[in-house]
Amino acid sequence: MVHPVVAEVTARIVERSRERRTAYLARIEAAAGNRPHRRELSCGNLAHGFAACAPDDKAALRTGIAPNLGIVSAYNDMLSAHQPFERFPFLIRNAARSVGATAQVAGGVPAMCDGVTQGREGMQLSLFSREVIALSTAIALSHDMFDAALYLGVCDKIVPGLLIGALSFGHLPAVFVPAGPMASGLPNDEKSRVRQRYAEGKATREELLEAEARSYHGPGTCTFYGTANSNQMLMELMGLHLPGASFVAPESRLRDALTAEASRRAAAITALGDDYRPVGRVIDECAIVNGVVGLHATGGSTNHLLHLIAIAAAAGIELRLDDIEALSHVVPLLARVYPNGSADVNHFHAAGGIAFVIGELLDARLLHEDVETIAGRGLSRYRVEARNDASQAVQYVLATGRSEDLSVLRPVAAPFRVDGGVRVLRGPLGTAAIKVSAVPEDRFVIEAPCRVFARQDEVQRAFDNGELDRDVVVVVRFQGPRANGMPELHALTPLLSVLQKKGHRVALVTDGRMSGASGQVPAAIHVSPEAASGGAIAKLRDGDVVRLDAEAGTLDVRVDDREWPTREAASADLSASQQGMGRELFALFRDRANAADAGGGIFHCA
């Protein structure tokens, strides 16, 4: 039995999704079969499919009776998190051959880095890159040559995009293969201090660049707990990683062994054998709820308020912000990882990591245990640590069940917070989300005159001119999916943090995104409807008193009730955000985009 709230939320998701989920399962059932689909290809089709393979692989594909694994890779060597994937196809092919299977790189998907594009025009393509990745995944698998697929991806929109694409081929088993985090660099609290000193004009660009270079310094995922590392947690809690795979260092013996084992596992769970595990059945309502619970318990990225809704929809499941909020009230915060603490994911992993979190949540009945995973039935299979045995293969040992560092990871009985810290705000300005896990409790309620902006750089200029040196609610609008692709607004964090440290009561209200990096400043994000769709946030004027109340769950404006309904919404010239840096190619995406509370994407399937 699970916790009553977890059971209640799951039941209502099941009920509201029944029609769509039934249709989805019927579709993937029709696509499944107990023989390779490539056997249905014409001789010319099949010959094209194996023309460049090694002789033994070509012979195996020619007979068509052994599993063939498709590799969908987000490799590029500009992203530190994805550079290690260069070697993975070699490891995967060799491991597949060891069990009589074959593997081919089916295709690549784009992988952009929000860390590089932050505050730049390219960031306006970031959210929509998720949809491009899903589309690219579909193209990679459209050759109908494969019995299962391995997905090589780590970062922000990449894993959600891969999973949305994988779910469109829900009859195929899917194994997600991570690359691991880079070694710890400059401590996060020191990096944060340099960033704030730079925002105040007290540090030079050279000092800032040196701090950033010491933080991001080698292959692997950035070590703070943003969307990329939240992705890895989700894939493990939702049963798509091998147990213990998420935070093992790149290019280590254990990482190579886990990659090889992922290939062998993919070959073992195809429809050609007796342990068929299609991804469309692994990702069900219980798996989605488990993902939400894991997000709350670890203080994961608010980007997943978008991504989990979109992922669920791709599986015929309707997840809502109300569900996410309801779970947040009963799931305690067990981890403090930057930006919600000073530790990084390597410290988190060393303290007990995901195995500890899963164990604690299972014991507290906050997770569904009886679920399908790629490792077998039952989430208890993930209460283990992965190690190398004497032959350098993967060996699993039962996790100790204790935290090795209570400043980073705590048990359910003594959490950092009794709840997950995600709230939904509602009021005359629309619906928004806020993450308060790092916000001081005396800042849960902010009421102050607002200052309205339509661009992030306008906020910087006002800050530099001293115009924000007071109690203020900074409103940044026309930042939603339909306006400019909904970029993250990270550049605001140091500025607002400086104002808060001066003692001012400040908050952010935006229809844009802030990821997991809003930190200690209260931020009402993902405001829906967005300004570009005529949302009420477009009615705000400089000086209007805005009240953000994370305790009551409200986002209000102190304007006369007779005036507010008749006040006209402001418009904005968005042309500068819709041309250049490839943005003109995404007009169709902007025109078709869902609201943020529906996932912010273009696939209208929920």
Q: Which class of secondary structure composition applies to the elements?
A: alpha/beta
Distance between the termini: 29 Å
Main sheet: strand order: 9-10-14-13-12-11-15-16
**How many domains?**
3
Biggest β-sheet description: 8 strands, mixed
Task: Assess the beta-strand content as a share of residues.
Answer: 5-15%
Runs with pLDDT <50, length 5+?
A: none
Q: What is the CA-atom radius of gyration, in angstroms?
A: 24 Å
Multimerization status: single chain
Shape: globular
Describe this entry's structure for a reader.
This protein has 606 residues and is α/β, with parallel strands linked by helices. It folds into three domains: 4-183 and 218-398, no CATH class; 188-216, no CATH class; 422-598, IlvD/EDD C-terminal domain-like (Glucose Oxidase, domain 1, 3-Layer(bba) Sandwich), CATH 3.50.30. It is built from 21 helices and 16 strands. It has helices spanning 4-31, 43-50, 55-63, 88-98, 114-117, 126-141, 158-168, 188-199, 205-215, 227-237, 253-268, 279-282, 285-298, 304-314, 321-328, 345-350, 353-363, 456-464, 481-484, 492-501, 587-592; strands spanning 68-73, 102-108, 148-152, 174-177, 372-373, 376-377, 384-388, 394-398, 422-427, 430-435, 445-453, 472-476, 506-510, 523-528, 545-549, 554-557. The chain has an eight-stranded mixed beta sheet with strand order 9-10-14-13-12-11-15-16. Strands 2-1-3-4 form a four-stranded parallel beta sheet, sandwiched between helices. Strands 5-6 form a two-stranded antiparallel ribbon. Helix 18 (456-464) links the parallel strand 11 and strand 12 (472-476). The longest helix is centred in the N-terminal third of the chain and has 28 residues, at 4-31. It is globular, with a radius of gyration of 24 Å. The model has no long low-confidence stretch (mean pLDDT 92).
